[in-house]
Model the fold of this input.
Amino acid sequence: MTKIDIISGFLGAGKTTLIKKLLSEALNGEKVVLIENEFGEIGIDGGFLKDSGIQITEMNSGCICCSLVGDFEKSLSEVLDKFTPDRIIIEPSGVGKLSDIISAVEKLERDDISLNSFSTVVDAKKCKMYLKNFGEFFCNQVENARAIILSRSQDANEEKLAETIELIRGLNSEANIITTPWEALEGKQILHAMETAKLLSKELEEEHHKAHHHHHDEECHCHDHEHEHDHEHHHHEHDEKCHCHEHEHHHDHDEECHCHEHEHEHEHEHHHEHGEECHCHEHGHHHHHDADEVFTSVGFETIKKYTIDEINAILKALEDEETYGIILRSKGIVPGTDGWIHFDYVPEESNVRMGGAETIGKICVIGSKINEEKIKELFRV
Done:
């Protein structure tokens, strides 16, 4: 029996870091396969993880829902048949919806797999910002998780940490929440919390099952919630494109997500105050977008050499929304003057370090309404 663990989380939350910790501290005696679903033209994380000896399958398909209907299920079955692993870890795109991944796994209906855990990594310092600005995607990841694993909790003060927990509890009252900094925990402790996180009652378990389980010939209800089963649905065949986001409140491709019914603001004062709940799924105001309707990615290869100071300056410049758009994530491996430079960027935070070589420099930038030409100018490509 192959255990399947889904580890979701918004862009830059720390999923890859958590997976590396689990691999080295909790799963080093198991045969593990990692399946990634990257949003973007160039997958970067496979380069970070390949040293672990894990089979990497990257699918740079953009719209995660459409990839699930075809490529994802096929890839998952192929991995099971080819490798017969003890465990499969699925790392969805940071802008993917956890409910879609759960549905796709359950849809396989194989006797040799067990959906072992589905968890979400949440940045303790950025929960409120992402909840406000990209709630349709962020809410889904939190609502459907059995365990919420806070990253960077060591960098948040008690007030911020309490606020984050309150916001999470407003979305999901049942999930285990891990608040202890990862450095203070063994990977085995985190894995145990993920695996033992159970819904509190049989009724809630059945409710979750109804909300997410799709049989092969059933209609898609992947975004239906408790009392909203009376609107029009779209039928999925195996080779048919996914239309599960094309409902009455469908937005044009250039329109952003306004799941909180406000104009999109990306300042760092936010919509949810203490005790206020997320209203992303209020009756009559559902917003069902594909990831590629709201988010844009720019990926390119480069042979240009950079210094660490140059990369730091570039990442600092990405905070200029008027010039570059709303940049939510950037990562890359590029040649430097004294080796290879690895970098990660999320709003207000970046990490630049020396690392292993890649076959060619790779850069990926993800955001909303980003200016591709300006970004290429910034990176000098």
